[in-house]
Amino acid sequence: MIKLTVHSNRIGPIRGRHPWVFSGALKQIPEGIAGGEPVELTDEAGSYLASGYFNSYSQIAVRVWDWERAEVNQEFFSARIRDAFELRKKFVLNKKTNACRIVNGENDLLPGLIVDLYGDYAVVQFHNPGIERWKKEIVEALVTEIKLKGIFERSDVRDRKRAQIVIPAQERESTTVDTRQPIVDSRSWSGMTNEVGMTGLLFGKIPNEIKILENGYKFQVNIKEGQKTGFFLDQRDKRQALEKYSKGKSVLNCFSYTGGFSVYALGAGAKKVVSVDSSKPALEEAERNVILNKLDEKKAEFILADVKEYLADRAKDEFDVIILDPPAFVKDRRKVHEGLQGYRKINEAALRILPKNGILVTCSCSAHVSLQDFRFMLSEAAARAGRTVQIIETFTHGIDHPNLVAFTEGEYLKCIFAIVR
Q: What angle (nearest 5°) sits at the alpha carbon of residue 101, between those of residues 96 and 104?
């Protein structure tokens, strides 16, 4: 195994169990190391520190997956996935919930890997070529440990930078193949490529839409074309928290996507729920989810509109509860100020139209915006709207999205429930 020496003044984060090692922390990086190659980190005296895989010659050189020596083989990945799955089986999965995140990247000691479970099917994302090198072992571990009917790859993520592989048209059509063997060839690929990554069938077969259960509610999920891996699993506990604020209330769900918050609000007895999104297919899916749960369709309205424009046209006191769950406004640390202004504008608009004692549910999934920054933004929006705001609940990641204590870079989701005076 390749050994890399860490500068004595840079070993603190590694001993603190941080999973990233930057190139500047290493005394020397030999030429010709392939992405995904197992490496061992030592201090300047040659003592063992940690193990991981070589990421790249850019800023993050090594991604750590162990602080004890271990052979990297099929059992290594099986054990990792087994441990991660056990955590979810114990605290998340039950008769009323069959969908959750199974592997949360660095936080489950498999850096760069995301695995989301949707009933009998899984969606995987390989966020970098290093972890993708181990695709065959990972797929085999998932099949063995979780007993899946199908695995689909959705590595079409924005932060993935890689050379595009040209696949012949006849192979691109092969994603409909039904096989009981993992489809992993020498190029680690068996589907479609696009400008940011890969999508395609890796094992078994995948229906066009999958029905899942979440806290007793039913949802249809399109894992092949939906946002992220098809559904915002990280909001499960926030959707459930909304129920107690919804009975007998008029609820506005902004950036509603496929209607997760809307279904929970209607299920809890809301008198009216309006879902607003700029995507017609998402709204159509939201409407189908309302019907799927046999909820009162007369209480549900679906509006195709720009949220900022819609909020600007609303009269005060029209809604008792407003949910703001926008896409990430900050995708680059250099644009934090610009993104915070975007958050401020929509929160200010919502605060202006909420009645006294109205409820605001406001979220951000921008990793570059801290909870402290988000809270300061909300106080600024409240000041501009002339409202007093009390935070009554604060949420971050759910149980199925664990976070290593040292890995603050892995924090991204924050959600505030507030009462407006």
A: 155
